[in-house]
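Q: I have 495 residues here and want to know how they pack in 3D. Can you give me a structure?
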Amino acid sequence: MLRQGSEASDARYKSEASDVLLYMPETSDARRHIPETSDTRRHIPETSEVLYEPEMPGARYRAENLAQVKKYIKDRCIDSVEIGFADINGAIIGKRLPSRFLLEHMTSGTGLCRAPLTWDIQNEYFTTSKFAGFDCGASDMILKPDYSTLREIPWRKGTAFVLADLYVDAGEMIRIAPRQVLKNVLNRLDSLGFDVKVGAEIEFYLLDANKEPLFSGKETYSIGKAGQYSDILDQFQRNLEAFEIPIEAIHTEYGPGQIELILEFSDALKSADNTIIARNSIKEIARKNGLYATFMAQPWENRSGSGFHLHQSLWTKDGKNAFAEDNITLQQYAAGLLSGTREFMALVCPTVNSYKRLADMSFAPTRVGIGYDNRTVSARIVGSGASARIEQRTGAADANAYFLIAASVASGLYGLENHLSAPEISEGNGYYDDRLAKLPSTLREAAVLFDASEKAVEYFGKEFTEVFSELIHFDISAHDRIVSDWERERYLENS
């Protein structure tokens, strides 16, 4: 098992099974994920007001909570409320309601067709499921607001946004809804006495009006280039903070026009909510400035891809980092994370394009492995003490945040529940380590693994896995039918 030296000047985690050291120096400066204190409340800008903390569904609409919502809307002169949810692709879908109407129907929600849970990224129906589609009459579902997520949109004063959970008319929660898929996994983890906190790093390209990169060259971490485009970066930072989405940093990345957004760590559901909302917000703010923001994983074949890296750690109910307190927990979670990496790859790289960023020597992983602060494998262990965590590096920027987080947590949970042994620690360049299993290199390969996964059915449910499988196969078939410019240039005259 993994052991930590008690009084040593460095913290060493040793695997008796593999006799490999997990070296975690106490002087590590990687403190992004976990604060020094046990106070893990999110930072809220001073101008914001927390309505109330999320509660169990049955207590959500208590009178005192609804009174706070009414006061919030009245005090800020909010006349419109956007009520939305993430569709299966991670895009925010919903309706815009007059606040008057919302206040008159606070607990009943609003109806909307089920189609967004069973259509592709271009709103084409793909499902034969009984849940949705024309075979079942394209039925409605009910959006019920989670008022703990209500917040005014800073750049559109007088308009607020609230996330919704999805129900059928009879009152049953829809289990294939992306937010609910994550909730189901988190509830299972909770039964073991753990919470999980995550920090998201997501990359995107800023494009000009012609949809070309806003600046040229590799300008990674460039203060000068960030200063040159501070007008738009300041808008991202200030508006997200005012929108109650705390960010740790924003900086230029490895590709021309590429930016990375780092969100402050938080509990998993809140982090997923914030990531979904932040991505939508960045795209909207960019358009209002005559620009485009794209989270496409690989927009150009000869430039850097965009990833979605997830830092994660388990916490005990008394506020302690379980990875630092109990090496067996770290060992089992890490082993589980590796065990689910290939099977759940379709959840974190959900499109045909997602896999084109996975290349050797590219900072994106190509093999399944874990090492200490090693960016050449699929996961790395970073930090020590209260900041101890694992970063999963496989995700593409186009992934649905609810699914990406659920995939990591379910994998780690599998390791805990099945008491998996410590994984071997990768050292050096993992790209060329033939002992490590390769990641799927195409969505077609990932789909085969997902379809055969018993873990997926166990942790996400049979109905969801069937619907999601249809989605990825639909994407594959749509791609297969396209005749590309490359094909015309290659074959048109020469055939």
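Q: Anything worth noting?
A: Residues 1-50, 52-58 have pLDDT under 50 and may be disordered. Residues 314 and 382 are 14 Å apart (CA to CA).
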